[in-house]
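Why does residue order matter? Because the sequence determines the fold. Keep that principle in mind as you read this record.
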Amino acid sequence: MKRNRRVKILATLGPASDSRDMIARLVKAGADIFRINMSHASHEILDRTVGHIRSVEEEFRRPLGILVDLQGPKIRIGKFADDEIVLNNGDIFTMDQNSDPGDQKRVYLPHPELFQAVKPGHRLLLDDGRIELQAAEVSSDRIKCKVIYGGPLSNRKGVSVPDSLLAVSAMTEKDRADLDHALKRNVDWIALSFVQRPQDITQARKITGGRVGIMAKIEKPQAIQRLGEIIKLCDAFMIARGDLGVELPLEQVPGLQKRMIRLARRYGRPVVVATQMLESMVSSPTPTRAEVSDVSTAVFEGADAIMLSAESASGDFPVEAVATMDKVAIAVESDVNYPSIIRAQGAEPEATAADAISAATRQTAETLDLAAIVTYTSSGSTGLRAARERPSKPIIALSPEISTVRRLSLVWGIHCVQSEDAKDLEDMVDKACSIAHSQGFARPGERIAITAGVPLRTSGSTNMLRIAFIDHKGSGST
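Structure:
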């Protein structure tokens, strides 16, 4: 199943879309990788959904990635005696460790770590930022606040503290249990919520032991402050614009998105742009012009993947949302300005043989007008390097490891194929040419570029570039 675009589509599954039939329809519409949100899914739902995805994968003979999104710590207030109150600007409101039902003056906050982290002057945002408080007095068991922006406040609403660094792990006991279960089902990626510091990534790495790709969700101001360190340690990252928009001024988020996509290119890490991309399609079969522009911007900037959340998980038009995203992406990548914009955002290759070969392969493929670039990759690193160059020619990644091709389904421009390892250099050329031909990327008489590591089957040793002709039988010669 050959796609006509480079950017990948990540679709969240939920009540509206987690049946086998709907997953198949979403793949036909354009979905490349699926997200299972553990904030809403049980282990039983995870098992059933993974089974459906693998069944559809076998039917279409196309690797499909699975991302399990861990919930992370959830900070919430307690309950009110009357279920809801209304805070007015200038009111004094206290959060404390008294578990009694709250009233107009106070509410229970069952999170001791906040009383250690919040300082006078820090902001506390409630109900997704709809209410803003400012800490006035802080002790070991109470935070006395002034209401800056008030409004209705009901039971168990969330609390964000953008000015405070919390001494909590990015993984809760629930997350550990969810992660252990996801690893048993051989998922391809886990998304780590509430990342604040590089140590959150290293902690997850110790648990996973390389069995799954780690995607850091950038949703906290504290993560922005140490962004470079976090990106170097993770395998991919997600720009969680919704949470960033709550904890940071909204006008800063577009600039941060551009900055993070460029950092992704520099460090060779896949990046996902997420949250509210086609939000109106939760209840409408068509998007707004602003949403189309938003998706287009992410594609023009060179994001590896664009994500649907509620649109595909619980909305009324999940298939239409994926199809719309597919059409917008194809239109952007066909735009006359797209190649020059993508090229202008490129990063200089690292001073390694593998990076030099990848850069030379891109230039050679474009100069000679080759039909495709074929990379042999065991761990996936060669494919990542090829994608980092953002070539105008298709990239075909061949690997004997099903886990590698599934993981690469997230990455820009890569068509993933599981293939037996080549026996020798001649077999390598034949396999590359045959697959490029059979997958619809090259015709007899055309040429392809082939990159690999010699000796063969040596992970991370890309050091060879060859040009091969597709003969009339669909095999090759150099």
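The mean pLDDT is 95.
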